[in-house]
Amino acid sequence: MLIKFTVFITVCQVVLGAVADSEWVGKRFPDENVIDGIQEDDTTFLAPHDNHGRVEMGIKNKDCDSGEDPKGLDGDLGPINYICFDKRIKFQPDPTVHPVLHVDHIPKKYMPWHYCMNQSIEYNTLVPTYGDHRPLWPRYGEYTFVPKQRWVHSLEHGSIVMLYHPCANGNEVNILKKIIKGCLYQYVITAFNELEAKRPIVLVAWGARLELSKVDPEMVINFIRKFAYKAPEKVTNDGQYDKNLLEPASIKFKGQENSLCPLPSYVI
Ligand SMILES: *[C@@H]1O[C@H](CO)[C@@H](O)[C@H](O)[C@H]1NC(C)=O
């Protein structure tokens, strides 16, 4: 296991987002009492709040987040996201393209914020590994498409998110889906059409992502074992958002957070 992981690290190009706690210039620490100009004690808030002053998560609320996106602030949720429109540009897996493991240092004090559906949420990277998000998180499972403002919340609960470009090689995509479904309960699988052609398959966890051209099952399993359930919030219950859900995660692995990828139940 140890040897395997050493191999895993050397074949990857490790990119460290090195930010020391003291240098952190991110917003919204727990001790901040002004959030984008709104005082935390502003009585105009209609939605229930948690004890950090954030909108309560996991509660459907028509004034805040009912699982819909009436203003379209999380973008188009339709087929543009999950259909490969030009079949000629199917991306072929290339074993010579090395995988990239990107690890972000997230200060312990960092606390992401919950925004209602009337405010947009922006990320400064294409594939965020942490950040602000919507109060409702996705039910675990495979979707045609889930916007990042939703699955970033899943990351905060220790989940694994699999992203693939709709033009990625179908065989590679299916191999990875199968591995994930045989590894854990808390996963979200969705297409994501902004991934680059060179590495059109990406696994994300809180603070880490693995970008792949070709799926290496051992590397994927090592990533899941190392990064799943390492997030700050230990929330294991299912989400509430289920737009475009194709197949809910099997509850077979629910409560098995300490025995990830129990071989040989995944078959490649
Ligand atoms: C968004 O909706 C919430 C809940 O209804 C409200 O408290 C907040 O003031 C609204 N924010 C904006 C920018 O409209």
From TrEMBL:
InterPro entries: DUF3105
Leader sequence segment: 1-17
Domain of life: Eukaryota
Pfam families: DUF3105
GO cellular component, one term: cytoplasm
Keywords per UniProt: Signal
PANTHER family according to UniProt: TUMOR PROTEIN P53-INDUCIBLE PROTEIN 13
Name of the protein: Uncharacterized protein
